[in-house]
Recover the amino acids of this structure.
């Protein structure tokens, strides 16, 4: 039997790093709250015992206000682990101990883990382990997930208390509160439906007015939530007593975080600095890195020529050279761009700058009835829409969450970049960086306007409540950065290997047969022609229409489809062919359409799993309508200007 | 007074928290009646602001902070919420331009002034009716 | 002393901005924003002397970043003008500044 050990703690206390150190796994750890939205598991063998570690989302309390909290709490209630590790940050122990006092009522064997002791020591804070253990009544381990200090000790402690008896842990409130708790407790014990929960915990939660608990229990003799402040006050008083004995601090100087915050969130230059850094990021990722992309392109052209020359059978050589190598190659060309983008975003996230960015621009988002929290999801949307949609779980307000999920797909994800780059480099060679930047800007504007629109149509509720925790700044670690880049980039590479590989083959079949090589008479063209009737007002012919159909699988496929339909295999000749076929206005409206229309299959999947199937259909219709209108607008405006 | 009125740099003691879902969330974050909250800084557009609560930095929008009732220590009061009476000026929160402007009305650190109406102050230079923006940046102590 | 450095760097930063205006106007705006970090350091220094250090440190880091940006962006062309030389000097000075001042904070 494996020992099941759950890790819980406030957001951003280094829980995931500790989990990695304990299991030897490599989960990516971000320097902002709310990264762990799912329950992750990892196994470690220690002295012959199999220990199954479970990493729960970070929470401030065990209430049920946001999704993260609900996930953590439901796990602890319904899948009670053998041992619970409550992880607190050595530099802000107060909040962590609050969670600990709550968790202690759950009636599970508990270990208190004080993480980041190395950083505390640097700031002159000394933590007395023995005192802390005495006052809390549970084993205490001091660790640093960064240096690895205390990890073995923690594993030993887990084994030690797994074999010892469970100690009843209880934190006693004032008499008045205790009386109420006792009264409720005896009432709950008599109810068979509540038998599986710790009665004292339920009583406390009920008195705190926790919505789920109140819903579960219903009416009692006491008003729900009547002792909310008393309970919290009691806990914090207790914590202050503990800390007085345990903490020894020295001197006060402006900290590094203070100094950096002073400038980076400065009244006048905070926002300009943020915009400047974003501009530099995009220019670096899409312009500076370009020579490497050109190298990869040349390599694939060479490979495809090689295949064509060395394989005798016409059909097979065309499949390999024009279908597979060119199709996959036209996507892999963009790998350096995507990795570079994630490298910079990774540095920003790692260093702790990103929550500050959310803080700085929150006022703007607030006008749109959104918060800086959804701003983070929008930012992640630049990478890939799927993780961005998953990250909305941290938004406690259901209304804001739905709006964010429906609007994030408009943000240009990295998969749309190939389409932009191709078109920008063909038609707007000199202002390439500028054009890509404008499309990104447009996508942001569309996403934000969509948020306002949805707010007006679907909801008329109150704006959501925003709380951001600003973590300490830290120097990005190379290893962590590489992990970040790899995890994000891997997604793209895997897509190239699977969906895009398949799509390339299917596309090749559709465009090669039945005319054996003449794409203008192929199956694909038939589909595109049928559809182009609808897209005619936008100026799209059957080729562009066909590309858009295939693009729903994954937006990068638009590029490989175009290369198939025009150059039939040659990536480098695509540019010149395109210029002879379309005028810049049509291309621009195509660009805008490609930006906004139906999110890819993977995104649709995550939308339906996050907020329901109903919204999947809404999203498809909604995005198509927006795309059509925008493209039409560009066409009309363009025709009028040119 | 509410937490949103406390000038940047000052600490205040939490008096009460609204009885709502938001209130419960605030309590779990550490905004407990009886504890001190320090206003660390505000965002470039003035909203949200960063508070030091329980040793960590938490941002809160002014619309939410407005719901938190706080008191300042030692008879300290912000001019915007001062009752009629005699006060000394403890601090003026603002840049060089603001200080100069205040100087012209003889509003300086350490000076004694009289409040004779809502946001109406009497100094040696005369009687001035202040706007809320200015009045909320002047910290007084009752004499 | 530190104020003198701030003033000097603001001036050189603005000079850099005007030199880059013709070469790459978007980048010149970046330089302008980063110069204003130094500029506001002079203005902010009245209340808390440690703020000078903060501005010098962050400004230095930002100029170092723009130095790297300017160099990598120009690598394929390999033509370095006065503006580029100036930004390299500013970047290196900034790096040294940031490294020294970082010890002043916990």
């Amino acid at each position: 039997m494996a020992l099941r050990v759950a890790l819980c703690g406030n957001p951003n206390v280094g829980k995931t790093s500790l989990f990695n150190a304990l299991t030897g796994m490599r989960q990516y750890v971000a320097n902002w709250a709310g990264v762990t939205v799912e329950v992750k598991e990892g196994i470690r063998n220690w002295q012959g015992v199999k220990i199954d570690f479970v990493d729960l989302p970070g929470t401030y309390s065990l209430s049920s206000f946001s999704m993260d909290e609900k996930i953590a709490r439901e796990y602890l209630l319904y899948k009670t682990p053998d041992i619970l590790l409550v992880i607190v940050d050595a530099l802000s122990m107060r909040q962590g101990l609050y969670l600990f006092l709550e968790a202690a009522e759950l009636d599970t064997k508990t270990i208190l883990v004080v993480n980041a002791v190395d950083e505390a020591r640097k700031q002159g804070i000394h933590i007395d382990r023995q005192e802390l253990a005495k006052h809390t009544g549970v084993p205490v381990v001091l660790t640093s997930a960064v240096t690895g200090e205390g990890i073995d000790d923690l594993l030993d402690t887990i084994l030690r208390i797994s074999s010892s008896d469970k100690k009843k842990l209880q934190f006693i409130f004032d008499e008045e509160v205790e009386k109420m708790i006792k009264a409720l407790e005896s009432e709950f014990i008599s109810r068979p439906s509540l038998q599986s929960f710790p009665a004292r915990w339920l009583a406390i939660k009920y008195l705190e007015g926790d919505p789920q608990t109140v819903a579960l229990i219903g009416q009692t003799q006491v008003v729900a939530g009547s002792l909310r402040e008393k309970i919290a006050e009691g806990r914090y008083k207790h914590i202050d007593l503990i800390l007085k004995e345990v903490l020894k601090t020295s001197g006060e100087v402006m900290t590094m975080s203070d100094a950096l915050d002073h400038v980076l969130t400065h009244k006048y230059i905070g926002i300009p600095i943020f915009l400047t850094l974003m501009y530099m990021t995009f220019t670096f990722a899409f312009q500076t890195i370009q020579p490497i992309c050109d190298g990869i392109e040349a390599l694939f052209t060479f490979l495809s020529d090689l295949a064509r020359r060395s394989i005798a059978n016409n059909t097979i050589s065309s499949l390999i050279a024009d279908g597979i190598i060119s199709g996959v190659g036209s996507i892999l060309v963009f790998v350096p761009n995507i990795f570079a983008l994630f490298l910079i975003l990774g540095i920003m996230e790692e260093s702790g700058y990103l929550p500050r960015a959310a803080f700085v621009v929150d006022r703007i988002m607030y006008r749109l009835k959104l918060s800086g929290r959804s701003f983070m999801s929008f930012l992640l949307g630049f990478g890939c829409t799927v993780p961005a949609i998953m990250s909305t779980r941290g938004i406690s307000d259901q209304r804001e969450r739905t709006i964010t999920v429906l609007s994030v797909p408009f943000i240009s994800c990295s998969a749309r970049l190939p389409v932009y780059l191709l078109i920008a480099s063909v038609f707007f060679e000199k202002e390439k960086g500028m054009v890509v930047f404008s499309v990104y800007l447009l996508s942001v504007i569309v996403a934000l306007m969509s948020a306002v629109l949805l707010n007006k149509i679907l909801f008329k509720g109150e704006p959501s409540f925003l709380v951001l925790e600003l973590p300490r700044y830290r120097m990005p670690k190379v290893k962590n950065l590489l992990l970040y880049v790899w995890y994000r980039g891997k997604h793209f590479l895997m897509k190239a290997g699977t969906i895009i590989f398949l799509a390339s083959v299917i596309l090749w079949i559709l465009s090669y047969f039945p005319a054996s090589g003449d794409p203008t008479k192929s199956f694909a063209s038939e589909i595109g022609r049928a559809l182009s009737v609808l897209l005619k007002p936008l100026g799209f012919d059957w080729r562009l229409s066909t590309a858009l159909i295939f693009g729903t699988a994954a937006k990068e496929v638009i590029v490989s489809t175009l290369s198939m339909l025009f150059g039939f295999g040659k990536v480098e000749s695509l540019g010149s062919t395109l210029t002879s076929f379309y005028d810049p206005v049509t291309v621009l409206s195509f660009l805008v359409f490609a930006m906004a229309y139906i999110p890819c299959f993977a995104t649709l999947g995550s939308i339906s799993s996050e907020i329901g199937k109903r919204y999947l259909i809404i999203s498809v219709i909604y995005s198509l309508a927006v795309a059509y209108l925008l493209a039409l607008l560009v066409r009309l405006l363009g025709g009028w200007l040119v | 007074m509410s937490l949103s009125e406390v000038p940047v740099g000052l600490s205040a003691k939490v008096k009460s928290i609204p009885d709502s879902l938001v209130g419960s969330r605030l309590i779990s974050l550490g905004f407990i009646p009886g504890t001190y909250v320090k206003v660390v800084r505000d965002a470039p557009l003035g909203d949200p602001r960063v508070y030091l609560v329980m040793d960590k930095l938490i941002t809160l929008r002014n619309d939410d902070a407005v719901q938190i009732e706080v008191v300042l220590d030692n008879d300290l009061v912000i001019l915007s919420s001062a009752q009629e009476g005699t006060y000394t000026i403890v601090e003026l929160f603002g840049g060089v331009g603001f200080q100069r402007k205040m100087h012209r009305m003889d509003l300086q650190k350490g000076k004694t002034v009289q409040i004779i109406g809502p946001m109406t102050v009497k100094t040696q230079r005369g009687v001035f009716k202040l706007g809320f923006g200015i009045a909320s940046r002047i910290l007084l102590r009752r004499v | 002393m530190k104020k003198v450095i701030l003033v000097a760097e603001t001036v050189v930063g603005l000079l850099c901005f005007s030199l880059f205006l013709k070469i790459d106007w978007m980048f010149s705006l970046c330089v302008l924003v980063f110069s204003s970090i130094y500029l506001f350091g002079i203005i902010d220094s009245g209340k808390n002397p440690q703020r000078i250090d903060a501005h010098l440190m962050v400004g230095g880091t930002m100029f170092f970043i723009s130095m790297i940006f300017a160099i990598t962006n120009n690598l394929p062309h390999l033509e370095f003008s006065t503006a580029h030389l100036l930004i390299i000097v500013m970047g290196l000075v900034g790096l040294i500044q940031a490294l020294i001042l970082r010890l002043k904070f916990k």
Remarks:
- The helical segments of chain C are 2-23, 25-44, 50-74, 82-101.
- Chain C has a mean pLDDT of 89.
